[in-house]
Structures are given as C-alpha cells and as structure tokens.
Amino acid sequence: MDIRALDEGLSFGARVGGLTASQLNDANVRAELNQLFEDCGVIVFEDVEPSAQMQVDVSTVFGPLKDHPVNTVARADREDATLTGVIEIATGDEKCVVEIDGKPLITWQPWHFDHAYNDELNRAGVLRSIKIAKEGGRTGFADGAQIWRDMDPAIRAKAEGLEVLYNLDLRYTHQKFGLPKTFRELRPHDIDMEAMIASKPRSIHPAVWTRASGEKVFHMTPYGCQGVVGDESPAAFALLSEIWDEAMRVIKPYYHQWHATDMVIWDNWRVLHEACGCNPAEERIVHRTTIKGDYGLGRFETTPELSGAA
Q1: Which one of 59, 87, 250, 310 is most buried, by most CB atoms within 10 A?
Q2: In sequence order, which ranges of 122-224 are alpha helices (DSSP H)?
C-alpha cells in the first residue's frame, strides 16, 4: 500500500493507494489500517475496486456493519441480501433543495456528526460514489480535535461540560443557528418529519469529549439541535451559536472531490462532515456503510433529568 498525508497543512487524514481485496485478508494489513484510522480520523482509499462487495469488505476491516437506525432511509441492499448495511443517498424529486450564495443545491447537509439523534453513536461511516455529479457533490471533513485546540480558550470554557439535546427534526426552517448567511430553502423535505420526530425520544451528547489518548474533541452540530440539558431558552441557543461560530472561525476542513474508484472512511466520534450538495438537475448516487460501535457518552432524554427544563 501507498500511504500518504491527506493534504498539506492538515492535522488529520491519510490517503491509501493500491489496496486490493486479497490484502484485506492479511491480519497485519488490517491492523495497520485500524491504527491509521485511529491516528488520522479520515482515510481516503484511492484506486480501489469499484464494487459494493469491496465496500463491504473494506468497511468490515474496521468493525461489524450496523443498519441505519431510521427505517425510512433508502437501502441499497434490498435486492442483494449479502450486502446488508449498504444504504443509498441519491438526488430525486422528493429531496430538499436549498440555495446558498444564489446557487440551488440538492442533498446539501450542514456540518454534523451522524446519528446525533440516537443514544448510540456509530464508530464510522464509509462512502463510495456511484454516480458523480459534474457540478458540486463534494464531501467535507473536519477534525474536532483541531477545532478544539484552535478555539478561543474563553469560548472553550463555555463549551466544557455542556450537554446538548438533539432530535430527528432536520427541517432547516426549524434550525435556530448555524446556517450560512445566504441560505434559503427552495423545496422542503418530502417526508413526514413529525412522524420521524415522534419515532425516537430526544438524545443527549456532550459538546466536547476526551479520547482515550487524552485529546479533547469538539463534537457538536446545529443539525437537529434542541437546546442544552435544562435550558431550551433563547439564551441557550445564543450560547450554542456563540460556540458554533467560534468553531467555524477556526475550522480547517478537507473537501473531497469524488472519483469512481474512491472510498472514504471517517471517525464519527471525532470528525464532523458536510454534504456540499450538487446541481438539482444532475443525478448523484452515493452508497454508504455504517460501522457499529459507541463511545458510550450519549443517552436518551429522561423526565427526571429534565424536570427543570425551560
């Protein structure tokens, strides 16, 4: 394998070229990849076999696959039972369309970590692009450890110990902070969002947590954010917005431009990611697998813990 830095000037990420299916059976290769993932947070696999089976095989190097916790999400594995755990993210007439800087975008999602609305956070995700849009369609990745290191210490002090509430309300019209200044929604999600929200209790996750290495990680998202534990007032959202704006001030992201022979894995406990969206007139299809695991710090909301909530 050819292992290189992801990009010059970044404190995270690696590129791996030349990985073959036969190498995945080698225990030493698997151990090396797992250590690289732990150290770097993001691995871009280049020039790999562009198949669903290869995606599953690469994914299981890092742990068992996990089904997506929302049953309305499209599954790519419905016609092939051997590919359980592969979901499909695609453009379509039912998808939300937004406008940023005057440009319409479909399948756009702001910076977030996966399954914030769940008590259990999956270990990682693996993406492979099946149909690549000619215009847009990039995926952004940012290191929560770098963000935390570079934040103003006074703002970090406000984030320490903060527990954030989330749910499945992913409507941008309900998002109270964190949207781009030029953001406008052109077409809402064509799904029963109220039913989705009611399907799960609210979740709670820390805004910052500490890895086994002792490294602290900024790990927050405005996406589905419902306030902080014990406070859902405008003041709470003002605090969250202040913290988020500081994180966005210091963020040093990597934006991946897709090729058919790429696969990307990212650490969902450490790395935030963003779907940059593409031209609504173009077709874009991405397959994703989810790696099972949990950092053990999330939980669902319980009435006694929030009896004093505003």
Answers
A1: 59
A2: 144-150, 153-159, 193-198
